[in-house]
C-alpha cells in the first residue's frame, strides 16, 4: 500500500511540474500590458507599481507602462518618482499631452516650478486654459515679510526689518523677482572716552532673474543695492551674483559667486549648495551649503545646514544652523545681506511653511543669534529673531 501511494505521489508531481514550470515562465509584453491596464482602471496603485517595475527591470518598457506607473506614483504622493516615470514616457512620445500635463504637475509638487517652462510651452492651449497657465504675467505674486529682533544688550535697540516683494513671469522660461526693504536699529558705541549714538537706517532694492537654459539647468542673476545711513555718514553698496542650479531630481546643486562693493571695499563670496530629498511621504530633506567669504579684513568659511520634513499635510517644518563669521555675508541668492555693524557668528532656528490655499502661503521663523560687538570682538551678546511672511499668488 505504501509503495502504491509512493507511485501516486510521483505521478502527481509529474503532472503538476509542467504547470509549475509554466507559472515560472517569463511573462510577456501582452501580460504586463493587460494586467497593468486593469490595475490602473481599478486604482490598485501599489500592485500596479510593483508589477510595472518588474516589467521595467526585465526590459519591457514603453510609453503606456510608464504613464500608468507614473500616475500610480503621483496618486500615492511620490512626485519625484512620478517625475522620473513621466520623463521616460516623454522619451517614447514627446507630444503626448497626458504625459506633459502630469510631468508639469510633478514639477510643481516637487518644488521644481522654475524647471517646468519647457514642459509648459508644449502643453495644449486647452490644458493651459483649464489649469490657468499664462504665457506671461506682469504681476504673478506679491509677498510681505516682517522681522523683529530682540537684542540682548542695552547698548543696541531691537532691530526691525520689513520687506515687500513681487514676482513677474516674463515667459515660460524666464522670471523676475524684485523687492524693497527697510532695516532700522539704534546703536550706542562704547568708545574709549565717549559714547557715540548711531541711528541706522538701511534701504534696499533687490532683483533676481531666473533663466531656464535646459530641462535640468537654471541660471540665476541677482543685483542688490544697499543705502546705509547712520546719521553721521551714508554708505552705498552694490552686490552682483550669478548662480548655476542643475536639477538631478532628488538631488539639487547650486554653484554661486558674488561680488559686493560696499563704499569702496570689495567683498567676494563663492558657494556650493547640495541637497537631497529622501524617499517617503514625509518628504524629509537635507541641504548643506559651504561658502568662502573673502574681504580685506579677513577670510572666513561659512557652513550652513538645513533639514526639513512635512509634519502635517499642509505644514512643513525646517531646522537650520549657520556657523562662521558672517560679516557682509549674503544668503538666499543675495536676498539677505548680513552687513549690520555687529558681525553675526552663529545662527540657529526653526521655520514653518503653511500653504493655506493654492494662492496663499504663510511662513514663520524663530532664530537664536550670537553677535560679536563691533567695539571689541572678544565680547558677545545674544539676539532673538521673530519673522513672519505671506505670499499671494495672483
Mean pLDDT: 92
Largest sheet descriptor: 14 strands, antiparallel, barrel
Shape: elongated
Instruction: State the end-to-end CA separation.
Output: 87 Å
Report the CATH C-level class of the largest domain: Mainly Beta
Helix content: 25-40%
Tell me how many strands there are. 16
Short structural summary:
The chain is α+β, with helices and mostly antiparallel strands. The chain has two domains: 2-131, Serine Threonine Protein Phosphatase 5, Tetratricopeptide repeat (Alpha Horseshoe), CATH 1.25.40; 137-393, Outer membrane protein transport protein (OMPP1/FadL/TodX) (Porin, Beta Barrel).
Task: Explain what you see.
This protein is α+β, with helices and mostly antiparallel strands. The chain has two domains: 2-131, Serine Threonine Protein Phosphatase 5, Tetratricopeptide repeat, CATH 1.25.40; 137-393, Porin, CATH 2.40.160. It is 26% helix and 50% strand. It has helices spanning 2-23, 29-42, 45-57, 63-75, 79-92, 97-109, 117-121, 125-131; strands at residues 137-151, 160-171, 174-191, 194-214, 217-229, 234-248, 251-262, 265-277, 285-294, 299-312, 315-323, 329-331, 336-338, 344-355, 360-372, 380-393. Strand 2 (160-171) and strand 3 (174-191) form a beta hairpin. The protein is elongated, with a radius of gyration of 28 Å. Mean pLDDT is 92; it is low at 1-24.
Key traits:
two-stranded antiparallel ribbon, Serine Threonine Protein Phosphatase 5, Tetratricopeptide repeat, single chain, alpha+beta, 2 domains, 8 helices, disordered N terminus, 14-stranded antiparallel beta barrel, Porin, 394 residues
